[in-house]
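Why does residue order matter? Because the sequence determines the fold. Keep that principle in mind as you read this record.
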Amino acid sequence: MNGNSRMLQHLAKAPSEINLVSTMLDPAQQVFLLTSAGSQSGTTTSAVTLANQLAKASMGQVLLIDASLSATSITQQSDLRRAPGLLELLENQTSEQLAASVLSYPDLPFHLLPLGQRTAQSEQLIQEKTSQLLSLLKRHFRFIVIDADAVYASADTLIFSSLVDGVILVIGAEETRWEVAQAAALRLTQNGATLLGSVFNRRKYYMPKWLYDQL
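Structure:
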């Protein structure tokens, strides 16, 4: 098993941890963004899990895009810092660049588009180019899941949020204050995002988990 695919499989959680998959199987919805109110809320884990479950629940191909500058992003953890990816594809939206940037692993049900190398020309996403790229990717993939930085950490997150079909806000249980989560949700909706729901991550069970599942 490839080391990168092993890492991604390790991040993916059990299907019961993601309760939004059935909601997303709407034919009209195709591109989803995961972000958070603050750092280290588990957005990457939730994005990998969602991509994994969408790939298993649908007939079409699924693409996971790493749009995060975090030191714990998929690109960083997989040591793909020098690999072409999202940023190169934004600048050169051709079938050749698409083939060179999108990665696939035989033991994973989804494809991966790493961040790529940020240059002076790609310091910030340009909304028109980003929209054009998403239109290109939608012709090749049934579902697209974008792992983004926290709402207040990067302007790129807000650009993506206004272009996707739905946004999922990841909330760290017993870490993210409700006022902060509420403010992040408001910022997203004011930016034109469609907020589908939230993932309550790292929750602690004060009674057996099997009993929670029966509630």
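The domain at 3-211 is CATH 3.40.50.300 (Rossmann fold).
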